[in-house]
Amino acid sequence: MRLVPTDIPLSLAILGLRLEGDDDRSTPDKLRAALHLARTLGVAGVHLNGAMADLRARELDRSARRELAALLRRYDLALAGIDLLIPPAHFVDSAHLDRALTAVAESIGLVADLRTLLKETPGAQVARDYQPVICITLPHDATQSVRAELAAYASKAGVRIADLSHHRQPIASTLASASPAANQGGPLGYALDPAAALMAGDDPAAVVAKNAASLFNIRLTDASSDGRCALGRGRLDIAEFQIALSAWRYTAFATLDLRAVSDQEHAAPAALKAWTTSG
């Protein structure tokens, strides 16, 4: 029997999600379709796509934020976080750095506002004390001052930032060289994408062990010899991965991430079945 960690809430990433009919839908309708899929799947929350047209943090005024919070409540979904995949080079390129940091700060502000709005009239899921995470891709050579600034933004709002890049060096070692605010136990951590780890020749279960103290988000992804695929159809040893998560007491979100997966509406329930059933 598989050791399925029952205290890990599940979420759906909107990033890379393509549903039938999306080409003819407006952005609000695409979002509703994604939330409907999440509700149908029975997951607890969603990761918003921070680059989605008309839903970028800088484009949403107070009224639009209230509407977004109301939509999440209507589907009884928690805000698991925001995926904000700014090109990593922008965090080290002086021509783009200010804009990149501003985008992160704006997304953190959006998360903070939505958390407040959701608590005003919470539903069954949103009433739970989930701590949302902003997922970004940081380059290894991001400076100490950049990491410190990101940590300051996150600390002020009570939000965590997770690096979705797959670095060969354990993230705890990377953070140890940064400012004290970004050290272990702080608001900067790691998001583990098993597909990226597998494609880099690494064992996702071993990566969990190396980064357990700063692991803020895991993605439910898989990879075959041809690249990314739906969870359960690739090389990920799900049982071993779950055992590692249980051993290191991981309790943050496990996020179904369907980037580059074909036939997503059928792949999604199959992936969750692979995660939750014995094999």
Descriptive overview:
This protein has a single domain (10-276), classed as Divalent-metal-dependent TIM barrel enzymes (TIM Barrel), CATH 3.20.20. Helices cover 39% and strands 15% of the residues. The chain has helices at 27-41, 62-74, 97-120, 144-157, 171-176, 194-199, 204-211, 238-247, 264-276; strands spanning 10-13, 45-49, 78-83, 133-136, 160-163, 188-192, 215-220, 222-224, 227-229, 254-256. The strands form 2 sheets. It has an 8-stranded parallel β-barrel with strand order 1-2-3-4-5-6-7-10, surrounded by 4 helices. A two-stranded antiparallel sheet has the order 8-9. Helix 2 (62-74) crosses helix 3 and helix 3 (97-120) packs parallel to helix 4. Mean pLDDT is 88; it is low at 170-183.
Strand percentage lies at 15-25%
Number of strands: 10
- Category by helix and strand content: alpha/beta
CATH secondary-structure class: Alpha Beta
The first-to-last residue Cα distance is 7 Å
- The count of helical stretches stands at 9
